[in-house]
Amino acid sequence: MRTMGSKVILVIVDGLAWEVARTGMGYLLALRESGRASLYRMECELPSLSRPLYECILTGVAPVESGVVHNDVRRLTSQTGIFHLAAAAGLVTAAAAYHWVSELYNRTPFDAGRDRFTDDASLPIQHGIFYHSDDYPDAYSLLDGEHLRRKHVPDFLLIHPMGVDDAGHRHGLDSMQYRNAVRHVDMLLSVLMPTWLAEGYQVLVTGDHGMSNDLRHGGALPEERLVPLFLAGSRFSGGADVVPRQTQLCGLMADLLAVPHDKPGCPELLV
């Protein structure tokens, strides 16, 4: 009999740079100060671009190994990822995310009329609400995720808001628009996370990559590579000396779900 796992929510805040997160996300930082969450500085893989790093986070495979090395690689993944692992174990999966996630794990190319709202138990992402506009409001993507959570009670749920990244591309890292976008998504999380945690979810909040003052990312500048990893839930150890890698997140989540896998994990983060 399979060991009972925990339900997991992964929030990837697109373009969330470490320096702004560690000073601007007041709610998540309050959880940390009160001992209800932990915060780690994590270096994203290269290139520091979105589609390659969605693939990295969700499969545990670095871009140079997965072959998803730029944003225009439009094909299904060649890797086994957390959605595949969870679905193969009979768990329920869901995502409220940018349409590139659908293209990586469900169907390529994305057809909005077919794929925007997905309910298909044969797919790795069984239940999905996928958006295809970069300025899709974060309030909508978070509520899309909450709708999926309430309706389908998924064991693994990805929520992926894009507003921080969009503000960075328009105004740059060192702008009030970018900082306020970070504050805004933190406020949205403060509405939802108390319920998630009270219901026993293990919650990970991270960024795929950071942002630069050139209105871009993709390289190895610290502001492009350094992202936060907030962990909240009863299964996390809160160990202060751990340095997690982005390639370990898939294995970490698989361990939380208690599904078989061969991914690199980070057992030091778990109790």
What are the key terms here?
single chain, 39% helix, 12 helices, 271 residues, Alkaline Phosphatase, subunit A, globular, alpha/beta, eight-stranded mixed beta sheet, 15% strand
The termini sit apart by 21 Å
> Given the structure, what is the number of helices?
12
Judged by helices, strands and strand pairing, the structural class is: alpha/beta
Shape designation: globular
CATH architectural designation = 3-Layer(aba) Sandwich
User: Percent range for helical residues?
Assistant: 25-40%
**Main sheet record:** 8 strands, mixed
Radius of gyration: 17 Å
Please trace the helix and strand order, writing H or E for each element: EHHEHHHEHHEEHEHHEHEH
E-strand count: 8
- Strand coverage percent: 15-25%
Give the C-level CATH assignment.
Answer: Alpha Beta
Strand order of the largest sheet: 2-8-7-1-6-3-5-4
Count structural domains.
1
> Under CATH, the topology is which?
Alkaline Phosphatase, subunit A
Uncertain segments of ≥5 residues (pLDDT<50)? none
Mean pLDDT metric: 97
CATH superfamily: Alkaline Phosphatase, subunit A
Summarize the model shown.
With about 270 residues, the protein is α/β, with parallel strands linked by helices.
How would you describe this structure to a colleague?
Helices cover 39% and strands 15% of the residues. The model has no long low-confidence stretch (mean pLDDT 97). Helix 8 runs parallel beside helix 10 and helix 9 packs antiparallel against helix 10. The radius of gyration is 17 Å and the shape is globular.
